[in-house]
User: What shape does this take?
Amino acid sequence: MSFARMTPELFALVAERFKAFSEPNRLQILHVLRLSEHTVSELVEETGIGQANLSKHLQQLMSCGLVARRKEGLYTHYSLADRDVLKVCDLMCGRLERETKERKKAFATK
Amino acid sequence: MSFARMTPELFALVAERFKAFSEPNRLQILHVLRLSEHTVSELVEETGIGQANLSKHLQQLMSCGLVARRKEGLYTHYSLADRDVLKVCDLMCGRLERETKERKKAFATK
DNA sequence: CGACTGCATCACAAGATAGTAATGCAGTTG
DNA sequence: CAACTGCATTACTATCTTGTGATGCAGTCG
Assistant: This one.
């Protein structure tokens, strides 16, 4: 890790960030937001997640600083907080892709 | 994400990877392994985590491909699976560092 | 102001996860 | 082979997380 000294508190904070990414519905939300800003009702449409549930996930993503909120009259628009959010996702997906590829190869040569 | 099309199964797989990172004890384990390969009993020493608990965490890290195992007689040596594991951690720590710095700044100017 | 809309929050049930003591088991040593 | 060691596994409990229906609330519109 890039901190000089890792304390239990830091481990907990970092873990919390990772936890925000560790749920399929939240990843799907981030994936939809990747394209553009969306309102909550648009996200309900796009993802099929229930409104209350979605709202809670968005709160969680907010509190970890992964998404940004913009209120406009009756609507709340959500968007990705920054490009690093995608970088993290892509890095993890890259790992997974490589992994599945290697598994396929291992299968083939068996 | 870098996959052509994200399916529910893919979201679940990626989420599982993130979940492996989303626990303070597991992050601490990865942090210790960052330096070098360790046996389980060494990890118990270094981290203060109970043996049974540690063993379970190691299984979980294994099944997600984050660490590698090498058995040698009575001992089992664990090490990081690859450099990307660290890249993911560092990226997340970087985010956190920036975040705390900005929060500090916001505090100062208040 | 009264009905409506979009969203947040609450309360609760169901399922997942982490910690721990006890046990199992393979490999080592006397 | 009998005792021991390092680790994995099991069984169980406590805690956390997620999904959902109901409710609350601020902003909008007739």
